[in-house]
Amino acid sequence: MKKLIAIGMTVFCMASVLAGCGSSSSGSTSASGEASTSAAASTSETTASAESAESTGSDLGAITVVSREDGSGTRGAFVELFGIEGDNGDMTVDTAEITNSTAVMMTTIAGNTAAIGYISLGSLDDSVKAVTIDGVEATTDNVKSGDYKVARPFNIVTNGELSEAAQDFVNFIMSDEGQAVVEENGYISQGSNGAYTASGISGEISVAGSSSVTPVMEKLSEAYRALNPDVTIEVQMNDSTTGVTSAIDGICDIGMASRELKDSELEAGVTPTVIAMDGIAVIVNNENPVANLTTEQVGGIFTGEITDWADVQ
User: How many CB atoms lie within 10 A of CB 271?
Assistant: First the structure.
């Protein structure tokens, strides 16, 4: 009997121990589950917070201002249109990165998520993103309608009587056929002088100036030479000021300027002719979630009054 009682007590104790272990395991599992749920919630909140920050652009930090070189017609028009001027002229912030062409500007913006710059609307492609200005999208139609205010003329600049070939090229640019090339390449025609008839002439023409005007000028040159294969046209890309000066000095037949001419340039005797209107697109990196800026915000950014993306939300 004593042996049976001892065995029973042993079984009872073992059962109690096992029950205790099971209870402990269950408690541990419950605690672990609560911890996992808490961690998941924390992760979800962190992700939501990060997504919220990304959606506003506040996590981009300091703004990298990218501008064009002195003499650039696009810079001159941009500064004027956005009021980035003071008593001493151009007030672009001293820390701005300076690029010397439209292509370099686009490459710079495409490689920096915090950067902002500006280019000819006709040169815009999907490597960068154009923000809307005051809620208006930068498009050819909006420039035509006047809704998008950030626009400027493309001028060709001549000085005195041109050679037969250069004059014929100007005639082509301003003809129905030439202005069709302007429109086909995303710029805005200001009207034409009628149909063009190829003259069968020969000769050499030199054109120099604005990097913004250069792309459409090259297209015009190609179209003209298809009709006049005996004419050679050399297009040199630099900036508007150099283009005007080269025309004044007789270094080139035709200068290119992506802005209005200054009084001092007109007084030197050159004649501007508007061949197209073009918008100026304010561009940011494709990863930048900021989609709209006001005229005042753009001015504040480029004068250094606004220095962080969090301040333009």
Answer: 13
Amino acid present at 86: G
pLDDT at 297 over 90: yes
Closest CA to 155 of 194, 182, 195: 182
User: How is residue 308 annotated by DSSP?
Assistant: B
- Helix (H) or strand (E) holding 119, with range, is strand 115-120
- Quote the crossing angle between the two packed helices 164-173 and 214-227, to the nearest 10°: 110
Look at residue 243 and tell me whether its pLDDT is greater than 50: yes
- Cβ contacts of 165 within 8 Å, gap of 6 or more: 201, 202, 203, 204, 205, 231
Angle between helices 176-184 and 214-227 (to 10 degrees): 140
Task: Count Cα atoms within 13 angstroms, Cβ side, for 71.
Answer: 18
Q: What is the 3-state secondary structure (H, E, C) of 253-286?
A: CEEEECCCCCHHHHHCCCEEEEEEEEEEEEEECC
User: Would you put residue 52 in left (φ > 0), alpha (ψ -120 to 50) or beta?
Assistant: alpha
Interaxial angle between packed helices 73-81 and 240-249, expressed in degrees from 0 to 180 and rounded to the nearest 10:
120
| Band (57; pLDDT cuts 50, 70, 90) | low
Choice between 194 and 18, residue whose per-residue pLDDT is larger: 194
Helix H or strand E segment including 115: strand 115-120
What pTM, to 2 d.p., does this model score?
0.73
Q: For the chain, what's the residue count? A: 313
Contacts of 278 (CB under 8 A, 6+ apart): 120, 121, 122, 143, 151, 152, 153, 154, 187, 188, 212, 258
Listed range (25-29, 98-102, 241-245, 297-301) with the worst mean pLDDT:
25-29
Going by C-alpha positions, the residue among 261, 213, 221, 275 that lies closest to residue 238 is: 213
Asked if pLDDT for residue 134 goes beyond 80, the answer is yes
Specify the DSSP element, H or E, that contains 28. Answer: helix 2-56
Distances (CA, A) of 187 to 111, 154, 267: 27, 9, 29
